[in-house]
Amino acid sequence: MTDGAVETVGGSARVLIAADKFKGSLTAVEVAQRVTAGLHSVAPGVPVETLPVADGGDGTVAAAVAAGFERREVRVTGPLGDTVTAAYALRDGTAVVEMAEASGLQHLPEGVFAPLTATTYGSGELLGAALDAGARSLVFGVGGSATTDGGAGMLSALGARFLDADGQPVAPGGGGLLELATADLSGLDPRLADADIVLASDVDNPLTGPKGAPAVYGPQKGATPEDVATLDAALTRYAKALEAAVGPRAAHLAYAPGAGAAGGIGYGALVGLGARFRPGIEVMLDVLGFTRALAGATLVITGEGSLDEQTLHGKAPAGVAAAARARNIEVIAVCGRLSLPPEALGRAGIRRAYPLSGLEPDPAVCIAEAGPLLERLAADIARDFLI
Description:
Layout: E1 15-17, H1 28-42, E2 48-50, H2 60-66, E3 70-77, E4 83-91, E5 94-98, H3 99-103, H4 121-132, E6 137-141, H5 152-157, E7 161-163, E8 182-184, E9 196-201, H6 213-217, H7 225-246, H8 249-253, H9 261-272, E10 276-279, H10 280-288, H11 290-294, E11 299-307, H12 316-325, E12 330-338, H13 342-347, E13 352-355, H14 363-368, H15 370-385
Parallel strand pairs: 1-2, 1-11, 5-6, 6-9, 9-10, 11-12, 12-13
Antiparallel strand pairs: 3-4, 4-5, 7-8
């Protein structure tokens, strides 16, 4: 076997493409299509299977639909209170719900942020729609949020009440929680108690404090230092109100993995929905049928827009590589930008990475021409590993 070639079973290579999106340029489905085209331009006879993946953040519903789930669209409340169209995915009683579909940054006009007032109410409506459709197993992927309300809006949409000292509902958004006096979860949709809800996230931040949702992620959503302090105080008040409503577990869960995800919606899901936390990529690989797809593969190609230090902490390529490495299957990565040294890639189970920036140093051109460049990279992979 020549250096770099893949040792194949029965002398025949079989490739599985399991890559995430290149954010801002290519969806996960488009990445798979471009890599397939590039491989087949050099090795036309090699069998290729595609399984677009996601880690629970934006693109999760699209990955589920690509794997055979049915796409369902509903009209829900957006983060600014207007009506938006959001989608979830459904198959055999299992729903994949992506909070960003209802409450994500993509629903804000360019340059507009609402760190104190953006609401997750639509995410609760989206979960309710999945329950209405008969789902009793829900994968709730969180990430890409425009919100920092601790999931209070989501829980309100599902029947909870958050009241001020006068017994009136507090204003939407994290800022409104500064006036919170009482949390009442007794009116939550009873179907939630019988549903298996998994909080899928790659975030292990607590709800509040120096590493909490407002401090770490608030600035990405337009929060000033003063806004961060306001939101941290508001979410602290929120956690105390939930502790008074449901008991000490609410205080404990404020520090649990996933609590700080997506502006604290993870905390609302853990306390109010009875969700259990699992790393997003692990959940999605299970839901998408990755183990089945991996059977018989001799080479796995994964990737995402930027392979960097964050990739190693629960992002899709790291999860794919770990699962493939457990079966002694070679893993190659494609990406837009690479900032990990070879030894870090090796520890993650990735034999080699191919960045678009290696072909085109101008980032703007890389984004604009990501498809054709990715085909060229895939052709190089075929020459290096399949011939």
